């Protein structure tokens, strides 16, 4: 897996380079058992770049390789997987090249289940936090609901200031 943190400063070269790095990782591997994946984190932030780096995704997502763009040829080891993470939808030309998974607002019970799952890797931490997990989840859930009443957010036409990443 190769991760690329997108931002308004992202470049087309940076994205293509990430795809090339992934292709190198799977060279000489059994492609029936191994696949390298490009992860573009916060891909929506790259939409604000004046260099329009996401335009490079069109051919990359069509056949999963950067090689075709440059040389007109490709081989199976150049085809890589792709995951784009974003807090908002991209333009339709990119969205129709994949599957979109969307997560709605979780209930308090789902937040508590997530918190317990996050802590489950360390029994000491889990036992120390068990008594306060419900209060933490309840407090976060209340904060999350109240932010929609924020005049500042309403003026800036933003849906939220706090998101699930703040909880996790």
UniProtKB/TrEMBL annotation:
Coiled coil: none annotated. GO terms for molecular function: ATP hydrolysis activity; ubiquitin-protein transferase activity. InterPro entries: P-loop_NTPase (IPR027417), RNF213 (IPR031248). This is Uncharacterized protein.
